[in-house]
Design goal:
3 helices; two-stranded parallel sheet; alpha/beta; single chain; six-stranded mixed sheet
Amino acid sequence: MEIVRKEPQSPSPCPRGHVATVCIRAFKGRKEVLVHLFRPQWDPAEEGGYPWAELVREDAAGGRGNSREVLMESFTAGEMDRIVEYLAGRYAERLTRITTNVLEFPLPGGLLPLRSMPEGKDIGRIRFEIVPGYPLPFTVHGLYDLSQHKPMDPGGTQD
């Protein structure tokens, strides 16, 4: 398993903004499935302490998204370190890669938060906190879209 960490080019105006994807070797009949990690919930009081004018470029058109929520779904550097440690330790044989990155500020207005994506036939969530022995003090979910990945070869070998 490979761990790829993309570091920020400049200091961030906010402790949040760290994001990650994991690539699962084989998942629900698909191969190399990308899963985008996010925080599905947070204390609303946390939102009051951020310099939003520096963090989100508000769109005059309004858009249907909520870029503030996109930021709130992200992690701090310390949380990201703990997530990577947990996933690398627990799922090393199932993952091919963990990639971390940082958001670039200001975020454009109108972005859709991952938690707003409806689950259905192809789009779903992994709720890590329901796995026995989940050690993190915060909730992490993963969003995947199976329609974006190739099916496993039924006649070949599976990873």
